[in-house]
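Quick entry between incubations.
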Amino acid sequence: MTTLICAGGSGTRTLEAVLHLCAAGLGPDELRVLVIDPDAANGNGDRTKKLLTQYIDCNKTYGGKMGRVPFFRTRIDLLETEDGQTGLKVWNPIGPNRNFADILNFESLSKQKQDLVHLFFTDAELTMNTDIGFRGHPSVGAATMSLLSLYKDQKPWKQLTDKIRGDLTESNDGSRVVIAGSVFGGTGASAIHPLARFLRAIPEANHDRLKIGAIALVPYFHFRPSSAAEGAIEDGLAAKSEWFALAARSAAQFYQYLRSNGDWDFDSMYWLGDDSSVEVNYSVGGQHQENPAHLVDLLGGIACLDFFAGAPSLKCCYYAGPRQCNEEGLTGVNVVEWADLPLAYIDRGSFCTRLLEFYAAGAMHLGFLEPLLGDQRTDSEPFCIPWYLDRFAAKRDYLSTPDNQAALWQLSRFLEGFHFTWWRDILGRDHDRVRLFNRMALMEQGPNGVRIDMFRLGNLIYPERGEGTVADVDRFFSSTVDQTPNAVGKTAPATYLSLLGQASERFVARKYKGKAA
Amino acid sequence: MGRMFFWMTEAPDQTHIVTQTWNAFLDSMAATSVGLIVVVTFLIVMLYTGSARRRRVHVPNDLFAAYTPMYWLLLAVLAAITAGCMCAWQYHDLLPAESTGQLDTSLYIGIWTGLWTFVLGYLAILTPGITPAKFRYRPLWLFYRNKGARRA
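Done. Structure below.
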């Protein structure tokens, strides 16, 4: 059984990446998810909650119901919290309307102990508003998180502890837990180590069967206070991006110290970052803090899945570095291609191919099949579409019924509103840094999201060849007809997506011939 | 071979046409007719196959557009006209000038040739592998148009 604990905003974005990869069928069978963030209202968290809700809807409709097509198969286990939240659970280590001084019960401490506290924390830190996170003060966060054991009998920690113990005794594969967060911010930097120590204390037996991995994100963005969004308030305690490098260095020194002294709780630690730092809008926290998806999020998600897939416990750190590009205009810029994705355990070829198959299937669904299934003639002349007659209309199981249309709409919304939008952000708007998918194939569709240009169905992978043709739509459609007998589904929508998935597999094998790997 | 025109074993104008001459005429027309059927059927299949395989689906509307490859079956009309004209010509050449029944005989043989060309051409189109899978029900639309259909 696998568990992902996301600390802070950057950790939450790693969850976002994991969900997108799980949608493509690259995730484990089941994934337990928990977010730790005092800033529960931050924009990134809000976006991830919506994504998670949409993913879970798709998982319920399609996951595990399509035979060997793995899309949306990962079942998400959301733990419960004391306050009875629904959806993605966000645990606040401090609690609403409290500050660090309240946690320490500072006013009740003796004068001597208060002086001791003042050695480590300023008055401003003791009384700062933590409703929008620890704001780049990991010392406050770490001290708060070190009190985690006080909550071990409360939800979600009691539930998590019981489940992990159950995994260790009942599951063949034991339990794998990944903690994801930045080491240069507030919550992530303060939570990774205390969490690992807490988790190591859980097993009463089978200690070796608990594997703990960490995704440590080092600086990959920066901001200037002058770019503050309207309504954001500049705060003297707020994080400053010029401190990020120093904070990351301090974190690295800390973890190196732990390794050197045999106090290493991690089976694997993945250090990920990007020194081609992207500028984001300044925000002290809250709903205004919503940064677009970044390549490092994808790398973090991949590292999570690599660990979940069974990467051996080497008690080591993994580093991934880019190859420098010497092309004109790109000197000093990190360029990332398929071969650069950090995969230590998962087979690279099948991983990349699966991503492409899901991408192509999504493109075909939005650009061709969705309009086709919405056409009245599909039901009145089903003989014009062989697979529709054979698998649906002949059995009077039409995809145009309200229930089936609602299921298909869930898929469309996920793809257009989340998946392709996310890839648009990952692939970037400037330069050709991220050379995975062809960003020219993505088309903005206004507020609804992003779709794929059907003229580039055969040019989904970088580079752009400028030879757009709609002939590949015919090839893909022919693949759907050829795969009709192989489509397996417990419901009509699942049968449809199974057919689409298998057709995509055939189309990618013929059209791309392993180019993604 | 002329016996394939079983309903014309007797000459239409027995006053002027000798049985031996009539049988020779029927044999000649049978050979011509069979030759036309084979050639035109082959032509229909080749043209249909090329046309169907060149047909592409690029937008959803392409699936519901008129299935024009079937129009090559209309070459059977050409076969019928050709057979009828050749029959009239042979009738004039081989049989006495005062003989009657030229028009009727030409019509019968023309229609017979055209029908067989159409039927054999249609059956050949239905041979597995001729029609691309994505259009496999289009040649049989008469049989499938109501299958699974749901109309508002």
